[in-house]
Amino acid sequence: MHKILILATGGTIASDVSENGLTPELSVSDIVAGSLHSLSDCQIDCRDILALDSSNIQPEEWQVIAREVAASWEQYDGIVITHGTDTMGYTASALSYMLRNIPVPVVLTGSQLPFVHPLTDATDNIRCAVAMAMTGKPGVFLAFDRKVLLGCRGVKVRTSGFDAFESINYPPVARVTGSGLELREELLPPLRGKFRLEDALNTHVFLLKLTPGIDPAIFDLLLQRQYKGILIEAFGAGGLHYVHRDLYGKLEALRRADIPVVVASQCLYEKSDLSKYEVGKLALEKGVISAMDMTSEAAFTKLMWVLGRTEGVENVRKWFRTDLTGEITLEERGVRD
């Protein structure tokens, strides 16, 4: 008999129609009763810990969720977290770092249609998440549309389609097929020690999407506002411009202030490679840190998490060259589809 805990945080899956639009109204017990009534080999415990649209789930809520998991995991074979889809990728990435070496599966899921809708995808998604939780395989995962992704690789790519999430630069770790849940264990990151709740976050991190013609003075403003870290979504493999508007002088000022600048690509797939073009090499000379093939969600939450532990460009650089939970593909651990 498997023992699974389901923690509810709100989201579309728990929503019903109100005069102001869809708002989280249902309890997790209502959802579970309608979704998992056929499971005879699983004991399900339910707990509502939040009731929020995921647009309102922020770092403070990540800490609430992480602490709830940390206080509960020893009593369960796995934990499922129901969550709105819009920020689920951020929460899944953040929990991947905060729940260091979690020994049981922690699986986030949700739906594109409310549970009360006659055509909802909630039932399939919850069943998939519970199936993954029942495997006992440690880690943080995201279950959606009959696929299970590493939590730090899942990105929402569709606003309404049932296949809302994709696994970026890493294969799904499991799929539901005619044979049931087919798990690829070779894709699961190994545990590297005992479990530790590491939920300190520095929320003074800024994500900037680079656009042609952006005013370099934006970096002066970020310095004045005392941001402790900056993630830039740059062009292509990691290019920043210097013709007409020179961004590199501002990068030099940030380095002098010991503010880490991480550079990711605006492209969803494949890695940033700042060594490829002059515009990237110049950025490396100014001390920026490459996010390589990390998603923006994983890089942004990792920067928050790292700055909750340490400060300074070189200290942050060391952490961004370390694969903690499968969020980055290092050369010695390449993974292919």
What can you see in these coordinates?
This protein is an alpha/beta fold. 27% of the residues lie in helices and 25% in strands. It has helices spanning 28-35, 59-72, 88-98, 122-134, 217-224, 248-256, 278-285, 296-307, 313-320, and strands at 2-10, 15-18, 21-24, 42-52, 78-82, 99-100, 105-109, 139-144, 147-150, 154-156, 165-167, 174-177, 180-183, 196-197, 205-209, 229-234, 261-265, 289-290. The strands form five sheets. An eight-stranded mixed beta sheet has the order 4-1-5-7-8-9-12-13, sandwiched between helices. A four-stranded parallel beta sheet has the order 15-16-17-18, with helices on both faces. Strand 2 and strand 3 form a beta hairpin. The longest helix is centred in the N-terminal third of the chain and has 14 residues, at 59-72. It is elongated, with a radius of gyration of 20 Å. The two termini are 34 Å apart.
Secondary structure elements and pairings:
Blueprint lengths: L1 E9 L4 E4 L2 E4 L3 H8 L6 E11 L6 H14 L5 E5 L5 H11 E2 L4 E5 L12 H13 L4 E6 L2 E4 L3 E3 L8 E3 L6 E4 L2 E4 L12 E2 L7 E5 L7 H8 L4 E6 L13 H9 L4 E5 L12 H8 L3 E2 L5 H12 L5 H8 L17
Parallel strand pairs: 1-4, 1-5, 5-7, 7-8, 15-16, 16-17, 17-18
Antiparallel strand pairs: 2-3, 6-14, 8-9, 9-12, 10-11, 12-13
Helix pairs in contact: 1-4, 2-3, 3-8
